[in-house]
Design a protein that fits this description.
Keywords: Endonuclease, Hydrolase, Nuclease
Radius of gyration: 34 Å
Family: Belongs to the YicC/YloC family.
GO molecular function: hydrolase activity; RNA endonuclease activity
Organism: Anaerosphaera aminiphila DSM 21120
Number of helices: 8
Number of domains: 3
Strand content: 5-15%
Number of strands: 6
Cofactor: a divalent metal cation
Shape: elongated
Order of helices and strands: EEEHEEHHEHHHHH
């Protein structure tokens, strides 16, 4: 079981450059990957995404790729002189129109988009990818390891909460038949008090009692909750993406608990229902972070 929250960093260096990749993620219904890398290597984005998607099923993943050049061998900076002149002319005209009398510096020009273009790696982008891939694999390993560790912590917490739910269900299971008997007795007493004995239709009374017994019985709900809890315990031990399965299962569990609450007026069972819903809500919130 894996959490959707994680962080990982990978670094690869050689004599020419140092590549640093950082990854972080939060929960998301789908696998949403955003990559920030140098513009001159934007063509590698799809390849990098495919590598990440092969190992990550869900989550909003942000990837930051930074390249520092150790020497100028592979650095290729192009100056767009024509564009720089256009920027200079435009700034000069603006300066005159606004009567600013300001001095236009070199920094004002080269800081404009497109004046300085980094074309490093564009001609040998495949070679760059091989180097980036080494740092990426390291970052991915650290990233997945953190998600796995947090997932194991969540699994332990789930197991503890499932244990609490089972204990509460034992209280309900013990109390359920007694409550049903009490309700049936109340029904019989009410009928006998309000209907004369010689006019009492025993056959009809038996039928009504049977119908009430069926409506108020929570045996089916108790059985289904037991099965849901067993399924939950099995699923959290599976590999891969299990978040959606757990989310569906916890909804079914909550529905059964609500049904129990609507069928009884017994204070002990109603208190137990409140405690069950509290534990289920805690699990539901944590499930949102499971891959």
């Amino acid at each position: 079981m894996h959490s959707m929250t994680g962080y990982g960093m990978g670094v690869y260096s050689n004599d020419e450059m140092s590549i640093k990749i950082e990854m972080k993620s939060v929960n998301n219904r789908y696998c949403d990957i955003a990559i920030r890398l140098p513009r001159n290597l934007i063509s590698l984005e799809d390849k990098i995404k495919r590598i990440i998607k092969s190992k990550v099923n869900r989550g909003k993943v942000d990837v930051f790729i930074n390249i520092d050049y150790i020497n100028s061998t592979n650095v290729n900076i192009i100056v767009n002189t024509a564009l720089a002149e256009e920027y200079y002319n435009a700034l000069t005209k603006l300066n005159e129109q606004l009567n600013l009398n300001g001095k236009i510096s070199l920094k004002d020009i080269y800081s404009m988009q497109g004046v300085l273009v980094n074309q490093s790696g564009e001609e040998n982008v495949d070679e760059y990818f091989l180097l980036i891939e080494k740092a990426l694999n390291q970052a991915l390993d650290n990233f997945l390891n953190m998600r796995s560790i947090e997932g194991e912590n969540l699994k332990k917490d789930f197991s503890e909460k499932i244990k609490n739910i089972c204990e509460i269900m034992e209280v309900i299971k013990e109390r359920a038949p007694l409550t049903l008997e009490e309700n049936i007795k109340k029904l019989k007493d009410t009928i006998e008090q309000n209907v004369e004995v010689d006019k009492l239709d025993i056959s009809r009374l038996s039928t009504e009692v049977a119908i009430m017994s069926d409506k108020l019985s929570i045996d089916e709900e108790i059985t289904r909750i037991k099965l849901h809890l067993e399924q939950f315990s099995d699923i959290i031990n599976l590999d891969g993406a299990i978040g959606r399965k757990l989310d569906f299962l916890i909804q079914e569990l909550n529905r059964e608990v609500n049904t129990i609450g609507s069928k009884t007026t017994d204070i002990t069972i109603l208190n137990s229902v409140v405690n069950l819903k509290s534990e289920i809500e805690k699990i539901r919130e944590q499930i949102q972070n499971i891959e």
